[in-house]
Amino acid sequence: MRKNHYLLLLLSLFIISCSNDDDSNGSQVNNAIPLSTGNYWVYDVNVAGTTGRDSLYIANDTVINAITYKKFKTKDFPIGFYSIALNNNALRNVDGKILLSGGIDTGIPEIPVDLTVSDFVVFDPNAVTGSILSTFNGQNEQELEGFDVNISYALTAEAGDNYTSYSTPDGQSYNNVKAVEVKLSLKVAVTIPDVPIPFTILPTQDVLISTQYYANGIGMIHTVTDMQYELADTFGIELPLPQSFEEHQEEALSVYNIQ
């Protein structure tokens, strides 16, 4: 009996280790997001313990600077970062690379960031793990409840690991999967009345890290997103921002239709 027990234990460890089988030899994901009008993806979303569903679909062609893209929309107001980021934005495929144009909503409350990108690379089938796919840096100034706010930002997409097989949290298994990590770094300074120099209330921090897993010929199958920030000491000055914020999200593919 003891011998059988050890055999069962070894078998279970083997199954767990192979549930997400990393393949460092290269990506076999040449069609990360099938871009045909009418394609749709339904995601089970868990945001800080609250569950819901997002329905993302390709609505139509749209032309930007004489180039044709596919316009993405959601059936209802999206709650997950991935669907929020793609909603009302445009994608195109160039030799397997997926390029995004439009205004990206981070979903982080109270910090208004204008992330309007053009052909931001969100996927590259030939990128090796750890390589940078695309970066977008900038800053914007705006008034927020009487305060002049300056926001510096850096949006980065980085190639992740390759998997010959990958299982989502609900146990669904997919072959030929490649990950991408999207990261947003922010620095926020405010000008306070009667204070001559801007005050940095948010030192440079990675406020959003989202890891997305793409299955060949299917699309995004699983996203894990963490959002968080911690303001510096404001010395009793009341600002129109929460002192801190933290949120964990997961989005898993439930239903899809690919043409």
Describe the structure concisely for a colleague:
The chain has 259 residues and is mainly β. 8% of the residues lie in helices and 58% in strands. It is built from 2 helices and 13 strands, in the order αββββαβββββββββ.
Any overview of this molecule?
The structure is a single chain. The chain is mainly beta. It has one domain. It contains 2 helices and 13 strands. Strands 1, 2, 3, 4, 5, 6, 7, 8, 9, 10, 11, 12 and 13 form a 13-stranded antiparallel beta sheet that branches. A hairpin with a 2-residue loop joins strand 3 and strand 4. It is globular and about 60 Å long. The chain starts with a helix and ends with a strand.
* Beta fraction: over 45%
Give the low-confidence spans: 1-18
The rough form would be described as: globular
Distance between the termini: 53 Å
Largest sheet: 13 strands, antiparallel
Structural class: mainly beta
Q: Quote the average pLDDT.
A: 88
Order of helices and strands: HEEEEHEEEEEEEEE
Helicity level, as a percent range?
under 10%
Number of strands: 13
Q: How many DSSP H or I helices? A: 2
Which radius of gyration do the C-alpha atoms yield? 21 Å
How many independent structural domains? Answer: 1
